[in-house]
Amino acid sequence: MLEDSESIGAAELDRLFARCFADRPHDRFALAVSGGSDSTALMVLMAEWIGLTGRSLEACTVLTVDHRLRPESASEAEAVARQAAALGLRHVILVWDGDKPRTGLQAAARAARYRLMAAYAGAHDIGAICTAHTQDDQAETLLMRLARGSGLDGLSVMAPVGSLPNGDPIGGDRLVIVRPLLEVSKTRLQATLRQRGIGWIEDPSNASPAFERVRLRSARAALDSLGLTPAMLGLSARRLQQARVALDRWVCDLLDPAAGVVEVHACGFISIDRHRLGALPEGIVVRLLNRAMAAAGGAGEPVPLAAVEAIVREVLDGQASGTWTLARAMVTASSGRLLVEREPGREPLPVRSLSPGTTAVWDGRFRISVDRRAEPVEVRALGVEGVRELRTRIEVPADIPVGSLRAVPSFSRGDHLLAVPPLGFWADGDARTQLAATFLGL
Hints:
Blueprint: H1 10-17, E1 28-32, H2 37-53, E2 60-66, H3 73-86, E3 90-95, H4 105-123, E4 126-130, H5 135-147, H6 152-155, E5 161-163, E6 176-178, H7 186-196, H8 212-218, H9 220-225, H10 230-255, E7 262-264, E8 270-273, H11 274-277, H12 282-297, H13 305-316, E9 322-326, E10 329-333, E11 337-342, E12 352-354, E13 358-362, E14 366-370, E15 377-381, H14 383-393, H15 402-406, E16 409-413, E17 416-420, E18 425-426, H16 429-434, E19 435-439
Parallel strand pairs: 1-2, 1-4, 2-3, 4-6
Antiparallel strand pairs: 5-6, 7-8, 8-11, 9-10, 10-11, 12-15, 13-14, 14-19, 15-16, 16-17, 17-18
Helix pairs in contact: 1-2, 2-7, 5-8, 5-10, 10-12, 12-13
């Protein structure tokens, strides 16, 4: 077993980095580097690996987010820029402007960081963002989620390659987050920098007991004495990830239209065959319903697990009918099916003005786009009046729930209804080729 004091050498680099890029060997990628020991080591080791493998430094961009939370943050970002330049790497500083929240500052800063990096990646054809999460981070996250009673998804914590937290669904199919250092301790990364004579920046917030991670670090000696070392906690996290992948595969098989269990409608609602649920383990039904509610509600946040479990218990216990609302989704149970759709009336559905050549996500549920040849348009929910007008233009299928019908996106210019793509309506040939709205679904 490697000692924590042992520097990372050239022989380990390919094991750390190659697997993360196995499926995207030619993609442009970015490194998230704050200047702390972990991210500085990531930048140094990545530059060494690129040199050893003959890859191009041009494919890599270093991103530093200046959160503007401390007076010295700008000079620290510039220091990272100089280190990156010395390694031959392109560097960009992204600034979190605007007012900062009084509470939940770390969570808000994290969300802003990923939002800024995702926006930059989308604008510069970058397919992956590498972060310097370590074995220590993995262990701390597992303990924090245990304290919250998290289920399997929460306890399997961070994967080596995964989706970007709070990522925009527009880029979600391509942009990934890569964590090549999850099995490496912070101590080894610091030893690596010391061996190379490279310093790093210490953020004073990393010593503040106001933050949960710092309090966990202060308990490190006690946890280690009980065998709860980062290495063993990381091993548990990897095994939980394997179980999660297996269950997700099962759910994906159920989502396959050929299975006949789930039907996803272009209008944004999901129908689940209730009779088929009784033969499934409760945990699989929970995962299935959780995904359906996340898609139909479009809230962009995790659906509360305990509440989904309560709904599933009532459904599996044979309750004949019922309606539940959660995370902007509404579940309606009848004798034969579960209908999952957007909850009506809780808050106004969005109205967006789209310029030519624009693609966006509407209400967290639909990908909408306007061709560059089109004129500006407005996108809003079809609503009661829109449904009434549409019925005079086309035959609207009778089996679409009225709530989902009113909640589909429609395109208009002034008082003129141009298109309702989920229902197959376009006012003319130009609208058909220029306006699109697709349910993001499952």
